[in-house]
């Protein structure tokens, strides 16, 4: 515990923890997208509901995973803001001229907008969980074999027939791509992968991961909207 407390004191330690939490969050996104892609199976959402039922059947294991996920999200957001503020305090004005040392500059829109994209994504996650997990905005339930439950696939399908929801998801999914484009590469650099040969490879890998996750998530609302449902 004191190792973590020590790490939090230094800017390098904070960067390492931000990178680590970011990588675990990206792995969560890979797992979440893999499950969500079952919405494309043409069975009216049955496979997706079976997958969700399986997750719910894990009971306490799922709660533990969810608690870890919340801790990861909050730690990542807190560290991201604190690194930004510390940098800002050390240099209140941005460089007039920026010249990268060694290799082409990786400073671009994705890298300079991390705080804004991260904040919007965090707000999105809160609303998204309230909507799809806790059904706060549309709490209708259906009777399935005598048990009152939410038909999750139907819930998702109905939500993505609303053009405003689809527009908001499109915006946030693009933003997730922008955040990950810089985030994945930067996480590896923070974890020590700074090497003239490895850096360009990691930069390309980060871009591909960002593009695949962004397009993968984006495909779901667009597919449902264009087809008028599942
Ligand atoms: C089109 C894209 C997406 C769809 C259709 C979708 C769908 C869902 C659904 C149906 C649930 C509830 C699962 C359940 O109750 O078992 C859920 C939970 C969740 N989603 Fe998404 N999701 C999408 C994108 C995202 C993205 C991009 C993020 C993160 C940036 C995200 C983060 C979460 C989180 C944190 C939970 C709660 C997980 C838990 O507590 O078990 N989702 N999502």
Describe this structure in words.
This protein is an all-alpha fold and 230 residues long. The chain has one domain: 3 helical TM bundles of succinate and fumarate reductases (Up-down Bundle), CATH 1.20.1300. It is 73% helix and 3% strand. It contains nine helices and two strands; from the N terminus they run ααααααββααα. It has helices spanning 2-9, 11-36, 46-57, 60-90, 109-112, 114-133, 152-159, 163-190, 198-227, and strands spanning 142-144, 147-149. The chain has a two-stranded antiparallel ribbon with strand order 1-2. It starts with a helix and ends with a helix. The model has no long low-confidence stretch (mean pLDDT 88). Protoporphyrin IX containing FE (HEM) is lined by residues 29, 32, 36, 52, 55, 66, 69, 121, 125, 128-129, 132-133, 152, 156, 169, 176, 217, 220-221.
Brief rundown of the structure:
The protein is built from 9 helices and 2 strands. It is mainly α.
List keywords for this structure.
3 helical TM bundles of succinate and fumarate reductases; two-stranded antiparallel sheet; 9 helices; 2 strands; binds protoporphyrin IX containing FE
Task: Point out poorly predicted stretches.
Answer: none
Global geometry: globular
How do the helices and strands follow one another from N- to C-terminus? HHHHHHEEHHH
- Cα-atom Rg, whole angstroms? 20 Å
Q: Count up the helices.
A: 9
Could you say which small molecules are bound to this protein? Answer: protoporphyrin IX containing FE
- Strand ordering within the main sheet: 1-2
Please indicate the percent range of residues in DSSP E strands (runs of 2 or more).
under 5%
Based on DSSP secondary structure assignment, what is the total number of beta strands?
2
Q: Which percent bin holds the helix content?
A: over 70%
For the largest beta-sheet, the strand count, sense and barrel status come to:
2 strands, antiparallel
Q: What is the CATH level 1 assignment?
A: Mainly Alpha
Number of domains: 1
The name of the CATH architecture is Up-down Bundle
Mean pLDDT across all residues, rounded?
88
CATH topology, anyone?
A: 3 helical TM bundles of succinate and fumarate reductases
Terminal CA distance reads: 47 Å
- The chain-level structural class is mainly alpha
